[in-house]
Amino acid sequence: METLSTPKRAAILQCLCEGNSVASTTRITGAAKNTILSLLQRAGAASEAYMDEHLVNLPSSHVEMDELWSFVGHKNRGKEDPRELIHDPVEGDVWVWKCICADTKLIIGWHVGGRTFENAVRFCRKLPHRFAKPPQISTDGLQSYPLAISYAFGNDEYAHGRLIKLYSKNKEGREVCIGARKVKGYGKPDMERTCTSFVERSNLTMRMQNRRFARKTNAHSKIVPNHKHMIALGFMHFNFCRVHQTLKRTPAMAAGVSSHVWSLREVVEMMDASEAAAQERAFALAFRQTWAE
């Protein structure tokens, strides 16, 4: 089977990370749809594994959390969602739970699932080992956060502040935000730093650069695994490859995780190295089992 060159694969990932759909990436690069989807799955899995390994013991002192709506297959259209009773997302409305460092803008952790208390707990439990010490946490008024965060961190060292937005109806009967108030959640948070501005701006960046997150589109994800892989690849690109306009460097460089701006060619090389290492581990395990028998 013919393997695409590294520059060709890097060009495909560049198209996907810059907001092109799979169909437009096919037209631009000339690669087949199945080839692009296969590369997306491999790059997404390698990116998630790499960030899980390296985004640990971070010096972040203040982080923000939020949820970003998307859909897979079709929208729920406001109907009662039976997926509320299960953990893993299926077709319909799917939310991306996200944690970002307010100082370095690094996407520290994320979780894909419904907007339920169970998923809030699963998201928060992915975070404690990523910090050198518990940070101050800022969230919106979602009621799942206080208990989910306490379950995850399980100590008295962290601080939690909430920014609760206030809504009212305008003349057309639509709900509009008319203000916000800050509420102490737990510990001794610095209420002046309690906000969700950075994570909400990151949500906008995600919608602009990921075609699958457009609100009215036919380029949406058709299955959840591909949705997750594109999210992981997008966060890899944001953290390691994209220079932040304010920081003048990548979030990974600002956090001390990387020493330089990554190219997508390096992401492809990282993916190849990760797959080669996994094959070696699998061969070594099979070899030991054979001799044990």
3D structure, described in words:
The chain has 293 residues and is of the alpha/beta class.
Straight-line distance between termini: 34 Å
Which strands sit side by side, in order, in the main sheet? 3-2-1-4-5-6
Q: Output the structural class.
A: alpha/beta
Rg value: 20 Å
Strand residue content: 15-25%
**What's the helical proportion of residues?**
40-55%
What global shape is seen? globular
* Low-confidence regions: none
Average pLDDT, to the nearest integer?
A: 89
Q: Tell me about the biggest sheet?
A: 6 strands, mixed
- Count of runs of 4 or more consecutive helical residues: 9
Beta strand count:
6
The H-and-E topology, N to C, reads as HHHEEEHEHEEHHHH
Question: How do the strands and helices of this protein lay out in sequence?
Answer:
Elements: H1 6-17, H2 22-29, H3 33-54, E1 62-72, E2 92-101, E3 107-113, H4 117-124, E4 136-139, H5 144-153, E5 159-169, E6 175-186, H6 197-209, H7 224-241, H8 251-254, H9 264-292
Parallel strand pairs: 1-4, 4-5
Antiparallel strand pairs: 1-2, 2-3, 5-6
